[in-house]
Fold this protein.
Amino acid sequence: MSNEHPAAIEQPLYEIRQEIYSRAVSGWFARWRWALVIVTQAVYYGLPWLTWNGRQAVLFDLVARKFYIFGIVFWPQDFIYLTGLLVVSALSLFLFTAVAGRLWCGYACPQTVYTEIFMWIERKVEGDRWARMRLDQQDMSGRKLGLKAAKHGLWLSLSLWTGFTFVGYFTPIQELAGEIGRLVVPGAAGAGPALGPWEIFWVLFYGFATYGNAGWMREQVCKYMCPYARFQSAMFDPDTLVITYDPERGEPRGPRARNADPTALGLGHCVACGVCVQVCPTGIDIRNGLQYECIGCAACIDGCNQVMARAGYPKGLIRYTTENALQQKLTPRQIMVRAFRPRVLVYTAILWSIIIAIGFALYSRIPLKVDVIRDRASLSREVDGRWVENIYRLQIANTQEVPHRFLIRASGAQTLQMSGEDAVELPGATTRMVPVRLRIDKGSLAAGAHKIEFEVTAADDAAIVARERSVFLVR
Amino acid sequence: MSDFTSGFWGVYISVITIVSIIACAVLLQLTSTRKVSGSEVETTGHSWDEDLVEYNNPLPRWWIWLFYITIFFSLGYLVLYPGLGTFKGTYQWTSVKQYEDEVAQSEAQSAPLYEKYANTDLKQLAADPEVLAIGQKLFLNNCAQCHSSDARGGKGYPNLTDGDWIYGGSPEAIKESITNGRKGIMPPWGALLGEDGVKDMAHYVMSLSGRTFDSLRAARGKDKFMSTCVACHGADGKGNPAIGSANLTKVNLLYGADEPALMETISKGRMSNMPAQKELLGEARVHILAAYVWSLSNSPGAPTAKPGVK
C-alpha cells in the first residue's frame, strides 16, 4: 500500500440512501403521466370485477389450467400466444425507446405509477417537499406520529387492495372478497367455498411488495434492480429523443434580478433555481447530461417550463430533443424526419407483422385440440382370426365454453375401419380421453407401420375440425 | 443412512462448509470500506474500445444486508435440514418422508370421494356414470398398459369385455382378481408328448373349439388328453375357474387358438401373472375398478363395447 494516492480516504463501499423529497410538479407531461396512471389503474382494479357469460371476465385459473379472457378460453397448449404477447411487448419497448427514450419507465411502468400514487398520498398527508423535509428533521411528536401513521395507514390500505386485486385475477375475486370478509368479520355473510391460506398469503405478499417498492424502495428499484432500465440505454442513438438540458442556451447559469438582461450580465437562461433537481424522483441533476438514473418522467421539463414562463424566457430549456439536434441545430421538422430512420422503421415493420400474425392466429383459432396416443404396450392384436386391431387413445379437448358432439374418423389405409364408438359428447371447456379401436382385414396390409390420420369434427360445426397423424402397425 | 465409508468425510465436509460461511462473513466485513483516490470520478480502472470506462458507483447500503441475511439463512438451514455430513438436522427432513407425507395428504383428500362408494354394491356402482368415469380413468392409468385402452387385451392379456372369464366373471371374482392378482401356470408338455404328440394334442383342442382339424391327429390327441390334461381342463375341456384353467371350447384363447400357437402353448407351457393391486391402489380404488370392469361385459346402464364393425 506504499504507492497509494496521497489524497486517498477511507469510505464505505456501500452507500446509505439519501431520502429524495421530490417536489410536486404540474404541467403538460405531468398531466400525461396522471392520465396513464388513471387509465392503467382503472383497468387493473376494475377488470377482475367484470363478468362475462356468468363467469369472471378475466380469470387465470391456475389449478384448472384454464385462462379466461372475455370470450376466449386459453389452455396451456396456447402458450404460444403468451410468447407472442411477450415478443410484442419487447419489440414495443425497443421501438418506443429508439424513438423517445424511456417512455415506458416515465409513464407506464408499475413502479413509476405506484410511486406516483404513493407520493401523491404522501403529499396530501405531510405536505410538499419543504414541509416533508421539516417534518423529518423534527423530533417525534404527537403531530408527527399522527401524520406518519396516517400516511403508512393509507399506503398499507392501498397496498392490500392492490395485493387483493392481483390475487383476484387468479382466484374468483367475489369469492375471495367473501372469504376475506369472513376473516375480518367472523360469521359475516358471503357466498363461495372456503379458500386456502395461500390466497391470504399472496394478498399479503403482493401487498407488502407494493408497499415496500412504492413506499420505501422507489427509485432504488430502477437504479439497482431493474434490468430494462439498464439495457434501454443501449437502444439510444444520436437521433433518439431524450430529456436534455440545453447547455448552450442555459450556461453560464446564475441567479439574476427579475427584469435583468441576461446578455448584459453574461448569463445564460438557466436561473439556477434548482427546481429541476427538486422535482426529480430519482434525485439527479439533468443539467449534468444524460444519466442512467433518469427514468424519463419529464418532471424537470414541466418544472423548468414554469420557471422560464415566470422569468419571461422561452420554454424548452430542458426539453425532449436528440443529441444530433443539439449539435447540428436541427429544426423540429428535421428531428421528426429523422424519427423515421431505418432502425425505427424496421422495429415498426416487425412489430406490426407479429401483431397481425397473432391477430390472425387468434381469429382463425380452432376451439378443439386432439392428441393421439397409440397404446404402447401392444403393437397389434389379432381378433377372431379375421382382423388386426390397433388401439389408440384420443385426448379430445373442447376448448369452447359450449358443448359439442364430436365425430371421430380415421383414414389412410385400405380396409381401415373403426370398431366401437365413433362419437363423443363433450361439455364446454372439458377434456376427455377416448379409447379408439381401428381394424383392418387380416392380410390386407403388409407387416410394418402404415401412416393414418384421425379427423375429429364437431357434429354441429364442420369448421371445428382437427387432424392428427398416427401409425397403424401390422405384425 | 450413510453414504460414506468412513466417518472422516462427514466431518471434512462439515468443516469446509462452516469455515466457508464464516469466511464469507469475514470477507464482507473486511471489504465493506474501500480506499478511494481524491479524484472526482471513480472508475473501475478497466477500459474497452480505447475510451470506454465504467463508473465505479457504490452499491446501496441495504444490499449488504441481503448478504448477511443469506449467511443467517444458510446457518439456519444447516441446523434444520441435513447438510453437514452425517448430521440429519433437527427437523429430521428426508425426501422419502416428504414423498410419503404428500401421498398421505393426497390420499386424505381423495378418501371422502371413495368413501362414498366403498360400501355400495358393485352392480349398483356399475350403473352410476360418475363411478364409471372414475373407473375409466383408473383403468387407463393402471390397467390399460396390459389390457389395452379399450380393455380388449391382446395375446396373453385377457379381453375384459367379452364375458369370457378365466377366473369367473361375478363382480366378486373380478374384485378378487384385481385385489390379490392371479397366477396361472400351464406346465410344458413338450418333453413328455414329443413333437408329434404335441401336434396331435393341438388338433384335439382345435376340435373342441370347432376349428378345422385333422381328425386322425385329434383322435390320437384325445387319448392323451384324457390321461394328462383332464386333471386341470376337465373331461369336456371346459376348464375350471377355481384354478384358472382355460376353457378350451372357446374360439379365442388367451395365447391364440390356431395350430402354431396351441403347439407352442402345449410344448413350452405358459406362465400368466396378473399382479395384485391391493397394496398399489388400495381397497377403495379396487372396488371402483371392479365395478368398471364388470360393467364392460354386463351392463344395463353403462356403455357396452359393441362388438362388430361399424
